[in-house]
Design goal:
Layout (H helix, E strand, L loop, with lengths): L5 E7 L8 H10 L2 E7 L9 H8 L15 H8 L2 E7 L1 H8 L6 H8 L4 E5 L3 H5 L1 H12 L3 E2 L3 E4 L5 E5 L3 H11 L10 E7 L3 E2 L5 E2 L6 H12 L3 E7 L10 E5 L2 H12 L4 E4 L6 E3 L17 E3 L3 H6 L6 E8 L3 H11 L4 E6 L10 E8 L4 E8 H16 L1
Parallel strand pairs: 1-2, 1-3, 3-4, 4-5, 8-11, 8-13, 11-12, 13-16, 16-17
Antiparallel strand pairs: 6-7, 9-10, 14-15, 17-18, 18-19
Helix pairs in contact: 3-5, 4-7, 9-13
């Protein structure tokens, strides 16, 4: 389960791209990994040990002769579940290929049998040099996963193959070798996100404060774990999610139709969207003048979860409840009424949670189990919810 922290050693080579690994570190933490940074001595010319200690919350050493009493070249090697070496310079790749052990990082690589992902970054001429290509071939023959670098602008005016890959690409490759990531391979995950809008007239609508961040996080997490993902997005601008099928909708009725079209083929439905509860009985085709804005007659919108649950077969259904009082009672009632398998409820009093990167709340399972969720990123919660959904899927 997600409560077991998986450990990553993040090796940082001595290249200008070292600063970009700070974002990689944060994203790994958001996914629930414990990260120990092991920079090479040369890399400290670009990013200092204090930065890595502040970001990781862990001590940072570069040489075997530091903290000798801890025998870190052995203890860290034993505790590491994965290695990511990013950036990997031409010099570092050469040292790894020849089995050198002249700093803490190269010692750890030799002492550990954990999966290793190497992320090269260097000048194009250095990357295409036969020596570097030979060293990369040696590492790959030994089971290292070595990414091809991106192509683009590098330091100065030079451009070509050798650019440090994006964090998204590195994580995607990393998830392919992670033991948990990939556990949704072959599964179809359907996710809704955002807030629906019910038109009053061509200008105004009834809506809510949902940003769609949680639903997007679930979709990304499922994709990284190997699932075929369809995201039904309500009024979310600027979405660009490679590898994820995205269906854009506006109101509750169009969301229902989109969910119905995909539901039969899905294994897990995560209903993270905030659906407006009411809509005008009559939508005006022309803008209502302010002087005529006296009252609006409303009716309930379609209950999407209730309608879909009537068609439920093998699917695992995950719901959300945004409440301001009686959280557990409200969530339990929704869990039972909508035939959900699990539900996540949080307190949105005073605008909390909506639009934020962090969340906290409670997970309720159909078997009556209640799991408190401490404050954490929405990325981390996404994996936690998928863990419980997959467990119930069997």
């Amino acid at each position: 389960m997600a409560s077991t922290i998986r450990e990553v050693v993040l090796g940082v080579g001595g290249g200008i791209a070292a600063y970009k690994s700070a974002d990689l570190l944060r994203r790994l933490q958001d996914l629930g990994y414990g990260v120990t940074v092991v920079p090479t001595p040369a890399s400290l010319n670009f990013v200092g040990a204090a930065t890595w200690e502040a970001l990781s919350g862990r001590p940072v050493t570069t040489q075997v002769w530091e903290k000798v009493d801890q025998v870190r070249h052995v203890s860290l090697a034993k505790s590491a579940d994965y290695f990511i070496i990013a950036p990997a310079t031409a010099d570092l790749i050469a040292r790894l290929a020849t089995g050198r052990a002249d700093d803490l990082l190269t010692n750890l690589v030799l002492a550990s049998t954990a999966p290793k992902l190497v992320v090269p970054a260097m000048h194009p001429n250095m990357w295409t040099n036969p020596a570097t290509q030979s060293n990369v071939g040696i590492l790959r023959s030994r089971g290292f996963i070595v990414l091809e670098p991106d192509t683009g602008r590098l330091t100065g005016n030079d451009s070509g193959a050798g650019r440090f890959p994006t964090t998204e690409r590195i994580l995607s490759e990393f998830c392919a070798i992670s033991t948990r990531d990939g556990d949704l391979a072959g599964k179809n995950v359907l996710v809704t996100a955002g807030g629906t809008r019910e038109a009053i007239d061509p200008v105004r609508f009834i809506g809510n404060h949902s940003s769609g961040k949680q639903g997007i996080a679930v979709a990304k997490a499922a994709h990284l774990r190997g699932a075929h993902v369809t995201l039904i997005a309500a009024n979310i601008d600027g979405l660009n999610l490679p590898g994820i099928k995205t269906v854009n909708i506006t109101d509750a009725e169009s969301m229902l139709h989109a969910v119905e079209n995909e539901f039969a083929e899905c294994d897990i439905l995560v209903m993270a969207a905030a659906v407006a509860d009411a809509k005008p009985i009559k939508q005006m085709s022309e803008k209502i003048k302010k002087a005529d804005y006296n009252s609006i007659d409303l009716e309930e919108t379609i209950d999407i979860l209730k309608a879909i649950s009537a068609k439920k077969g093998k699917q695992i259904m995950v719901g959300f409840a945004a409440e301001t009082r009686e959280l557990l009672a409200s969530a339990t009632s929704k869990l039972e009424a909508k035939h959900l398998d699990l539900i996540y409820v949080n307190d949105v009093s005073d605008g909390a949670i909506f639009g934020q990167d962090q969340t906290q709340g409670t997970i309720l399972l159909r078997n009556g189990e209640i799991i408190p969720v401490s404050r954490q990123s929405k990325d981390t919660l996404s994996d936690l919810l998928l863990d419980y959904a997959l467990k119930q899927l069997g």
